Amino acid sequence: MKKIFVLDTNVLLHDPRSIFSFQEHEVVIPAAVLEEIDSKKRLADEIGRNARSVSRELDALRERGHLHDGVELESGGTLRVELNHRSFENMKDMFGEINNDNRILAVALNYHKDQEGLTVGEKRLVVMVSKDVLVRVKADVLGLLAQDYMTDRAADPDALYPGYAPLLVEDGLIDSFYRDKYLFAAEAGEQAKALYPNEFAILKDESGSKSALVKLNGDAGRLEPLFQGHDPVWGIAARNAQQRMALELLLSDDIPLVTITGKAGTGKTLLALAAGLMKVEDEHKYKKLLVARPVVPMGKDIGYLPGEKEEKLRPWMQPIYDNLEFLFDTKSAGDIDKILMGMGSIQVEALTYIRGRSIPAQFIIIDEAQNLSRHEVKTIISRAGEGSKMVLVGDPEQIDHPYLDAASNGLTYVVEQFKSQKLAGHIHLEKGERSKLAQLAADLL
Known about the structure:
Elements (H helix, E strand, L loop, with lengths): L2 E5 L1 H6 L11 E5 H10 L5 H16 L9 E2 L5 E5 L17 H15 L10 E5 L3 H9 L3 E3 L16 E6 L3 H8 L2 E2 L5 H4 L6 E6 L5 E7 L4 E4 L15 H11 L5 E6 L5 H15 L5 E6 L15 H20 L6 H9 L2 E5 L11 E5 L7 H8 L7 E6 L15 H9 L5 E6 L6 H9 L1
Parallel strand pairs: 1-2, 1-5, 2-4, 5-6, 7-9, 12-16, 12-17, 13-14, 13-15, 15-16
Antiparallel strand pairs: 3-4, 8-11, 9-10, 10-11
Helix pairs in contact: 2-4, 8-9, 9-10, 12-13
């Protein structure tokens, strides 16, 4: 059965090419959606960029015919811009306020009503597509089928790649591993052979008396011991197996892209900073440590704060400074600023100011990367110059961006796209180490 998909504004602002994702079905864009997109096109952020992209896509489709009559798409479906579709009459008794959400829902409801008088062969299923939960709830109240826009999801949130796997092996293999310092993946069974490059495994024998932490060397097809993280890194010692794995990735010079996810308090940012300081200050492997995070406001944005750029950025960058103060063991307020000014090799910046740059020979940490879209994360990773290492950290469950979720954000997208690449490594931290209270809050609240 062919379907009619009515798109909400947020779907187009999230993915400007979403109109091409519905195969042979009909896509309907209500006039109210065009008005909302028009109001966003002058914004200087990602939403404004997407609004302009949607405008260009629709303008290009005008060459195929009048949009209000419907134009054919390459997928075999059609696109129609609906100017009115009857009236608001069917909505007023349930949702009387004439706002844009209700106008969009009215279009979907009127299309649904149109199907009632048709034969079974003529009927089409009407689907309201929105990333706004309340719009989907309203659609359900109206008797409409409603769904989230799922096309760009990297993976199911409950099945995201964790970066490691438990492996049960035959008795004697772990003794062989400790003796030879490696174990061929083929010897450890089918599950070991299915590991991704740089994926970790926790080996346990059948008796349950022996275990080992290993990482897959994709080139050699071998499970090898962890070479890094045995000793404290800038005073920070790994407190659990996953943190050992994270340090292995962070300190390995042959892995230029590292992604770390985990709840608040699992040590993501602190471990990345400690490793970056060691590589820059102690080993001089990189010229500079660059730490950046997206400015995604929960209230007024950065332009409303007083002062110069550095003063405006300080509230947003304070979590980074807190970690640096801990690592440098500063005693009084202002000490960290003096230290950073004297060193000159550490730069704390907002992501807004690294676009367009080429960044060679630097250890780059992107904090709160879950608030980046696919386009933004591509732009950022492509800034990495020769000899640079890029580290993305964040918690996919804590997203402030209005059009992203745990499965569609840029961090999750990178994890899933790069998990099979030998130049990348990922680990998900599970155990909170900030404090017992912080761990309890992360689990219960």
